[in-house]
Amino acid sequence: MYAFEYQKPKSLADAAARAANEDAKILAGGMTLIPTLKQRLARPSELIDLGGIAELKGIRKEGNDVVIGAMTRHADVAASDLVRSTIPALADLAGMIGDPAVRHRGTIGGSIANADPAADYPAAVVGLGATVITNQRQIPGDDFFTGLFETALEPGEIITAVRFPPAQKAAYMKFRNPASRYAIVGVFVAQTAGGVRVAVTGAGPSVFRQKEMEAALSKSFSPDVIKDVKQSPDGLNSDIHASAEYRAHLVGVMARRAVEKCG
Amino acid sequence: MSETGIGARVTRKEDFRFVTGRGTYTDDINRPNQLWMWLLRSPHAHARLKKIDTTAAAKMPGVHAIFTHDDLARDNVGGLPCGWLIHSKDGSPMVEPPHPVLAAGVVRHVGDPIAAVIAETRAQAREAAEAIEVDYEVLPAVVDTREAIKDGAPQIWPEAKNNTCFDWHLGDKDAVDKAFAKAAHVTKLDLVNNRLVPNAMEPRAAIGEYDVATGEHTLWTTSQNPHVIRLLMGAFVLHIPEHKLRVVAPDVGGGFGSKIYHYAEEALVTWAAAKVKRPVKWTADRSESFMSDAQGRDHHTHAELALDKDGKFLGLRVSTLANLGAYLSTFSTSIPTYLYGTLLAGTYTTPAIYVETRAVFTNTVPVDAYRGAGRPEASYLLERIVDLAADELGIDPAELRRRNFIPKDAYPYQTPVALQYDSGDYFTTLDMALKAADYANFEARRKEAASRGKYRGIGMATYIEACGIAPSAVAGALGARAGLYEMAEVRVHPTGSVTLFTGCHSHGQGHETTFAQLVADRLGIPIDQVEVVHGDTGKIPFGMGTYGSRSLPVGGSAIVKALDKVVAKGKKIAAHLLEAAEADIEFKDGKFQVAGTDRAKTFGEIALTAYVPHKYPIEELEPGLDETAFYDPKNFTYPAGAHVVEVEIDPDTGVVELKGVWAADDFGRIINPMIVEGQVHGGLAQGIGQALLEHCVYDDSGQLLTGSFNDYAMPRADDLPSFHLGTNATLCTHNPLGVKGCGEAGAIGSPGAVMNAIVDALSPLGVKHIDMPASPRRIWETIQAHRPRMAAE
Ligand SMILES: Cc1cc2nc3c(=O)[nH]c(=O)nc-3n(C[C@H](O)[C@H](O)[C@H](O)COP(=O)(O)OP(=O)(O)OC[C@H]3O[C@@H](n4cnc5c(N)ncnc54)[C@H](O)[C@@H]3O)c2cc1C
Predict the structure, then answer these.
(1) Model pTM?
(2) Of A233, B70, B548, B561, which residue is least crowded by CB atoms under 10 Å?
């Protein structure tokens, strides 16, 4: 780790002012950022710990939606009665992230800001048509993830919360990387007010919607209708754990299992 | 059996300290005024060091010194020695290139150390290391042994043509050729034994200290064998005589072989501490462990088994390419040779065996012993080819094994590959494991699984290992440059409590408990009156350390010998006190008693008399009660057993689910069943890890693709089912306890059983073999390749 200044502002405004410094870096759960610093892959002059800002924490209901503060830990989402009763698939997903230690440190804001191609939350953000709320604006989930570790966030922009609309039915199926336990492929399927959504994480450089499956499921919401939908391996990730072909195949398997799980 | 004696499930004495975080590991130790070392390591797999410029780095804050190979050369620091000389088929000695402590002009694997920075803090040392400017001329690299032996492959050492270190063989080639000529059936198999990263929980660490006043050097290090390190480092590398060099291996968090070897960092901190006249500490981070701890396995093998029409094995022919990595680690050369080829008889009567091993340098981290060390490679190969033969001949794999097992009455049994087994019973352990697994009714379970669209399979493997390493004369004749006896000192204190000094080292094995049980049992004293001391050359007269499941067979035997001496002297003292003839004194249950009378002295009274010799045969007997013994084993010990594994495979994902794991082992006499079970559990986890998860992968340029736990898949608790264990003892005939050792068995037997189960599960598709690790991807791809076209579409 290189030396840095550590700040723990009490207000969002203070944090935002500091985050304007382009050498500064926001610290949430630190589950990704701290290892990055330890490996000396980043050299921020200043870390701005969001842990002291009360308004970023917690889960609340706004109308029919569930709004989760950016600094809410995965374990709290997994255990939340509100989330469980409104969008159980989201609580399930949070409970599948990493291990207990990671779930008690990692945050939803950090996870989606980081936009790891193998992360789980992006599947829910896109799969449920959520809205990412920042200190500056509201970004539709569909527009938030723009590429490999890339998001629509502007430099210094801070995620404050994510708003999830409920779904009639939803389920997340994850095929874990045997080493890291991140998603080799994760598929979030939901029947929402705006139609059926099938969001795929892990398979590509960034989360994406499987439109063919969405179309088929819109006509008839059953696993059989997507049996013949072929996910193309073109452009999918390939590494020692899974080839693009294997990932493409798993997209189909996980999607079918997710639809089955929806009941 | 007493509550703490031989055979009792005594809870581990050391666990209070470990589970409450009160252990003292090397990294827990900080010396006054200590500095830190950070190593600049090569980012390239193969490169010439055209220039190393440390000028800017030396001016960085906190930096005391920066050392490179030139500094070591000026002080005549030697290279790291290899402890085992192997000869090739043609009689020529192996190619033994230098193993410099810091790279001498060329780096040969990613992680090869180039410069040592000594600074006030670890962060400062690291920062300065980054500021060292190295001008690399990157050279072509080779990581795969099959490529490395080709003409025109990058040459890692000019003296090693085609990167070959040696081309060794064992066995009677003519006899094998004849056996094949008359065979009714020949089974052939090519297989890979995947490279593994040991990943002890505690990364390596070392602290060097030099006492200017006494001229004494001290090294604290994460070692399985501190005396061996003192010997190697003192004699070959730093030229420090033993009486001025103390090596301490305090609590060590797992080794699995990787902490046997003498590593560059140990020599560096010891040497640098004397240079800068302040203690110097180094602790590896996990990334460094991945690229500097010696790795395991990495064999490519072609094997052929000749059978007669009844399935009797006639001959075995094995040809192996073994990866040594870029340098010869301490015992690297013995692993794919004498710890591998000699095990190829396994549990079978195969009359003719011929094995050739070509050991190859590559641009990878050195390879050396890892839990099992050569024996898992032998066992896996045998058990796979036996299963394949059973499949080809249409014989039940259990039946084929039974037809070829060494008969129960054939001991001592001389194998065609040098070893002589003293005892064993492979029939009983196989039957136990099969029965426990309900092998007889397996087909119904296969059918039931098929009805759910799953492939279910069952597999078995038997194994034998040569443990209790090693009879020194035998090892010496085979090229070992060390003796492999063990030492124990039993120091009885005046009030009758005992400190046991052992030359073995405990880094997870529970010696503090098992060895205390031996003492308590023999002397009839409470176990809390026994303290076991290990891991410090300043306290323990000598020792060869712990590896190869040797601690109980060899170290335990030394303890028994020392206890014999204590009892013998005690009898003399008792005879004097009781005014009886020495021959009439019996020692039992902690009492020295005149046979047939009630006249007796307790062990405590005798101890006190030895140190307060008022009434004492002082003319004939020295005071004190402190006995030392060395024990050199007469033979190896031969733990053996059978593992059975049942799996279910999801063809949609390729995921293998373990439905059951059964092990039936013969470890000889068992001192503490709970500790034995723990050892088997850990071994099984590692063996299953090798079969299903673990794989160390380099890309073609020599970059380590699995350099962290993000990509290197370690087995976790939820990857494993509950294990079903059983034991059946045939006693070792040549050591006083009848013990065989249990440390490696789990890792030796399980890979074959897992893979046989997987191949069995996929046999309806025509699958004959799958290499480890059977990752979901590999299984899925295998299924795709074997599926009839129609079904795949
Ligand atoms: C061992 C391990 C296993 C894991 N397994 C999984 C898994 O299975 N699935 C999975 O999805 N994830 C997994 N993770 C990731 C983890 O769950 C975290 O979500 C992730 O590390 C980032 O969250 P964090 O709160 O720790 O963010 P940090 O590490 O603190 O920050 C990550 C990045 O986001 C930025 N950032 C943080 N908060 C905000 C904000 N509010 N606004 C703008 N930018 C912000 C930071 O500046 C930084 O660049 C794993 C992590 C570890 C260490």
Answers:
(1) 0.96
(2) B70
